[in-house]
Amino acid sequence: MKCPYCSSLESKVIDSRPTDDGHVIRRRRECINCNQRFTTYEKIEEIPIIIVKKDGTRESYNRMKVLNGIIRACEKRPVSMEQMERLIDLIETRMHTSMEKEIQSELIGELVMSGLKDLDEVAYVRFASVYRQFKDINTFINELTKLLQEKTHQ
């Protein structure tokens, strides 16, 4: 690691510890040449995920876009921001562990609906009604019927 004071490439690690979220390692280093101390941060290099939309277009994954959809579905519902963030973390973990560079937008939608079904059924129905583009009241009733049947089979 290059020293920010003297540009020497020789340093030693004095202390290492994870940051609060556990995604980054903070290292205190000391330059072998000038004995100055400095801090570096180490994190995993993430491969960007490309989302393939229904019409075939591609765009970079945007966490905020997914979060905004979840927030809208959970408006005025007893779902905390922390629960929504955990849901997105879970979805992102599934995407990264799939090892796919391109992910169909339908998969993300299904993962969101699955997570919302466990968090809050009303938020689930709200999200599903937009995501599945319910055309009429019958489609809406069919989805509610499926949800009720699943609930009675548990």
From TrEMBL:
<keyword id="KW-0862">Zinc</keyword>
<dbReference type="InterPro" id="IPR003796">
    <property type="entry name" value="RNR_NrdR-like"/>
</dbReference>
<keyword id="KW-0678">Repressor</keyword>
<dbReference type="InterPro" id="IPR055173">
    <property type="entry name" value="NrdR-like_N"/>
</dbReference>
<keyword id="KW-0479">Metal-binding</keyword>
<dbReference type="Pfam" id="PF22811">
    <property type="entry name" value="Zn_ribbon_NrdR"/>
</dbReference>
<dbReference type="Pfam" id="PF03477">
    <property type="entry name" value="ATP-cone"/>
</dbReference>
<comment type="similarity">
    <text>Belongs to the NrdR family.</text>
</comment>
<keyword id="KW-0238">DNA-binding</keyword>
<keyword id="KW-0804">Transcription</keyword>
<keyword id="KW-0863">Zinc-finger</keyword>
<keyword id="KW-0547">Nucleotide-binding</keyword>
<protein>
    <recommendedName>
        <fullName>Transcriptional repressor NrdR</fullName>
    </recommendedName>
</protein>
<keyword id="KW-0067">ATP-binding</keyword>
<keyword id="KW-0805">Transcription regulation</keyword>
<feature type="domain" description="ATP-cone">
    <location>
        <begin position="49"/>
        <end position="139"/>
    </location>
</feature>
<comment type="function">
    <text>Negatively regulates transcription of bacterial ribonucleotide reductase nrd genes and operons by binding to NrdR-boxes.</text>
</comment>
<dbReference type="InterPro" id="IPR005144">
    <property type="entry name" value="ATP-cone_dom"/>
</dbReference>
<feature type="zinc finger region">
    <location>
        <begin position="3"/>
        <end position="34"/>
    </location>
</feature>
